[in-house]
């Protein structure tokens, strides 16, 4: 499964990068394949391990912010691994054709 998620601290002002970094740090330390862009962090693994990482990432932000908003989108496709890379490579291949 690949899960893309966004954690946004609320009630802390406009500068939220420091709080988001707390969440991303949890993801990166998890050892699961992951990728962060300007809007989402994607993490790949089985259901339980991915949801555990998301829960801990949210908790890291929640520890410092009075309110947290979370958006998630999941691609659940049993038997597929390395989707973070292979899905992008497929699109790039089609763009190069």
Automatic annotation (TrEMBL):
Gene3D superfamilies associated with the record: 3.30.70.930
Annotated source species: Streptomyces wedmorensis
Full protein name: MTH1187 family thiamine-binding protein
Pfam families with a match to the protein in the record: Thiamine_BP
Family, as annotated: Belongs to the UPF0045 family.
Domain Thiamine-binding protein, residue spans: 4-92
InterPro entries: MTH1187/YkoF-like, Thiamine_BP, UPF0045_domain
Domain of life: Bacteria
């Amino acid at each position: 499964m690949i899960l893309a998620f966004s954690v946004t601290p609320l009630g802390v002002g406009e500068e939220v990068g420091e709080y988001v970094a707390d969440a991303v740090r949890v993801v990166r330390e998890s050892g699961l394949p992951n990728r962060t862009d300007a809007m989402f962090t994607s993490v790949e693994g089985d259901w339980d391990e991915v949801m555990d990482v998301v829960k801990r990432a949210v908790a890291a932000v929640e520890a410092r912010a009075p309110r947290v908003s979370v958006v998630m989108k999941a691609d659940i496709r049993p038997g597929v691994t390395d989707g973070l890379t292979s899905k992008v490579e497929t699109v790039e291949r089609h763009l190069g054709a």
